[in-house]
Amino acid sequence: MTPGADGPEARPGETGMTEGSGMTDGSADETKNRRGKVDPRLLELLVCPLTKTTLSYDAGRQELVSRSARLAFPVRDGIPIMIPDEARQLGEDE
Amino acid sequence: MTDAPRLFDRRTVAARRRRAIARGRPEDAFLVDIVAADVAERLATVSREFPTALAIGGPTDALARAVADSGRSHRVLRADLFAAGPDGAHPADLVVDDEVLPLAPASVDLVVSALTLQWANDLPGALVQIRRALKPDGLFLGVLVGGDSLTELRDAMAAAEIELTGGVSPRVAPMGEVRDMGALLQRAGFALPVADQDRLTLRYATPLHLMRELHVLGAGNALAERRRGLTPPALIGRAAEIYAERFSDPDGRVRATVTLVSLSGWAPHESQQKPLRPGTAKTRLADALKTTEIKI
Fold this sequence. Notes:
heterodimer; A: alpha+beta; N-terminal domain of TfIIb; about 10% helix; B: alpha/beta; Rossmann fold; globular
């Protein structure tokens, strides 16, 4: 467990740049453009985080829909975002 | 989900995490590397396979990679907390909030969690959800920040705040104690629960370097009862002075304690060792001890 203890020590001169590096953003998004579809085997494991009931996958809208929670969880670049705060509330007619 | 007092503002935890990923350099999250190495080591001592594993953590691929490299599991799902970090060699498979785990019951064989559970408002609840996601005889390995972590920062901030404002506000989160963790695992229904801890002393050029690193890690103050708004520069400056006075080494660098609490537990299965029911012994204790039994 010792190597990490040197971690912060190893870059005393560099740390001053950490805050400035915010300008070189975008890379986080660019790296994700590699997949569009969710792995069907992953879908088998997933349930609604709030009600633990099954989800249905809407490939067109790229959403995982929880009927019981009335929420649609977004799938971004093939990655299901299972965060209730980021889910879309289902409309009356859905 | 619960009426228990909310210690952490989870939206703030999420926002800090996203910001750290977007603007910081998550590869600086060296603690994740330490924890991933630790998990790999623990996994190496378990002589069985876990076909499907879930690695809850991020923001880097270190944990998922460590589990995959262990050879114990041929399918490792990387679940990043609140936001997907950089791909690395093992891109994120899903994004989760570990207080509301989106996993079907008995769906995975191994769950590892790195440096996420210290922000749980309801740790027993989070552990129960992990246990339910595990198949019988599935394993959970988790590491969280706890014990007397950042005790130096807590002291320095409190001393500076009393000096400048005459009071204190919550700035460093309370930490879980290892002695409580074994009981929590048991309460959550894990068999053969084990909790232990590892104390690290990190050294920084100045206290400000430590504070900056906490922000890079997305570990800024997310306490629900925190004082809102910007922390006055004078307070940070005075806290840094006090920190340097009290906690520096002869070479001028400052120390910071980080205690990593490691948890492990198994989803119950009949094959596991368990105590026999009282009165079911087939051999007399006196015989085993080669002595004579004295009736009382």
